[in-house]
Amino acid sequence: MGRSDSQLAILGGPKSVTLDPGDIFTWPIITEEDEQAVLDVLRRRAMSGTDITKQFEQEFAAWMGMEFGLGYPNGTDSLRGAMWACGVGAGDEIICPGMTYWASAMPALPLGAAVNFADILPDTLCIDPQDIEHRIGPRTRAIVVVHYAGYPCEMDEIMAIARKHGVRVIEDVSHAQGTLYKGKMCGTIGDVGAMSLMSGKSFAVGEAGILVTNDRPIYERCIAYGHYERTGAPSRWNPTDAQVTDADLKRYAGVPLGGAKHRMNQMCSALGRVQLKYYPQRIAEIQKAMNRFWDLLEGVPGILPHRPPKGSGSTMGGWYFPRGLYRGERLGGLPCEKFCEAVRAEGATMCYPGANFALYLHPAFHTADIFHMGKPTVISFGQRDVRQGPGTLPVSESIGQIAYGIPWFKEDRPEVIEQYAAAHRKVAEHHKDIL
Fold it and tell me: Is 290 part of any domain?
């Protein structure tokens, strides 16, 4: 039996993707301007200084329309600092989506707090606002929302719940630098926005992070927690920097209250200053490319775009960690794993089922004894026992069946994008051949 163009590659047919993608997936874009900025820091031996970092912080905060920015060595530290600054401590709780990267939640445990996980929405992969309010207790200090894979959370509903109960909102913007929610930039809506800027993110400057806020007490507490050289104490290595005005915090000047050093490496902040100059135009190109991909797949059974509705005023930012929504029941029950395998056979790489796993099932949130107290840290400080087992957050646990990875195009090249879209269309429309 001869091969036809419509026969799936996994069954011996021709591949859909035949063009060399070139650098369409290369990220971040590094130019001579970036290299010179980093070399300047190296040649001045200024890696551990703060002069370039402060410029980057000011420029990044201004781009987001925020008053304060604070650089970090990684996104995890920015989230930990944000939690502590929002009052999270021993015996407290935070609320966090059940499906996310561990850094959105794990910093609460070393602060002595527990994590009460909420389920996610199947169409946004973000925290479900309807699963938040009933979890709020007398020791709930913060709700951590994650704009997952660039999709903005339902911030209006979440902020209304938080304000009703006097709970802080921390936005984890690690996936969503430049994402808009109804015209507002994600990270500017809650009490504080914290994010990773590591080299895989859409705003990528190396192993780094940053925090933004309009709340001066939060900003000063973040400084006191891990930026000891900015608390006003004299230093031989950095100019005296009295950014902390709170009298209680000033008593501890010179020593970080969190016992952590949160200074950003200036090679990263130098790179960040250059990247920021071009980031808006680069994410505009990414959005053109990614929207082209999904527009080509409109109406294809079983697969749906993971993006806000057109005309909503919401966007996907740099579209980091892009996902597709999979509905196997519309493809005869074809498992997501089998669908992805067939798409990869067509030459469209990066197609794998799922996203991050259901975090609340990890033993770290059930049995880990971080402080050697003889019992799990999540209940060591008098917290309510909010641990949840299998079956409690069904959408989070179904992530391997309802979502999958798609190509992350950095350039809008129609001929390449059309072939990758054709691979997905071909498998969906010929799913019965696999079944």
Answer: no
